[in-house]
Prior knowledge:
The radius of gyration is 18 Å and the shape is globular. It is about 40% helix and about 15% strand. The chain has 15 helices and 9 strands.
Amino acid sequence: MSGRMEESRGPSRGRRGTVARDATREADAMGGITAGSVKANGLEFGYLEAGPQDGPLVLCLHGFPDSAHTWRHLLPALAAAGHRAVAPFLRGYAPTSVPPDGAYQGGALAADAVALHEALGGADDAVVIGHDWGAFAAYGAAAAAPERWRRAVALAVPPMPVLGTTFLDYEQLKRSFYIFLFQTPLAEMALDEAFVAGLWRDWSPPGTDHAEDVGHAMDCLGTPERRAAAIGYYRAMLDPSRRVERFAAEEEAVAAVGTRPVLYLHGADDGCLGADAVAPGGDLGRVLAALPDGSQAALVPGGGHFLQLDRPDEVNRRILAWLAA
């Protein structure tokens, strides 16, 4: 695995703060994982959690069309390593609140991550991990509030300078049809269970069964209001008029090169954002050039867009090694 190995030093470890939250945790069917809720950034976030309450916080952020259940393999592994692993449902995804101001830009997601760090009592040894839209949040949170995070991990969506160039590729434009569909009035009618199942099928290695995750996604997007929220992420992505000004600083941070080192992982068989567009010829040099010093990047063989589910052992191994370094 290649990378720039001169790692920047993080701030000294501080004493973990008192958890300020209104949370009720229920036993979840998945071993060792509990469910709860917490207020942050003006919203009520539902979350899944594993690990000791006094362990270093690891915030795991999902993407589209997905849910916090996408981390069901990673959460127990992080817990076994002594971390407090928390996977919130993103804004607008049930059971988390729909934001009344309709803010869905990347900066709002980054602000949510910072607010969740505060609400969950995180210290300066916390780590933020993001997949897909969660990757936007991870980049932005780490750059906007580096004093809160020791390291970051991003999956399936490269840094903004690289992501922007992928849309100049014809094959990638075809894969990204849904982004442009979501700019139209047809979006709300199109986003049903069959459409979500089709995306999971197209974005995953052939023969992969992700019916369980399609079900989890539809639990989050089961009402018109929730589906409009998920579509709102993509409309804010391409339409600056939909961005809320109070998240302007975090919006800039999403595209900035921060100071906290990032581990970037991309599925070699990603059918959403092709590895050929992100890493032509398997070369991740462009990705590393857009990340802070000390960052690393790797392609995960056999991994699709949801590589944390397609190749959980490999992804878990890489992330745990990154956190232990």
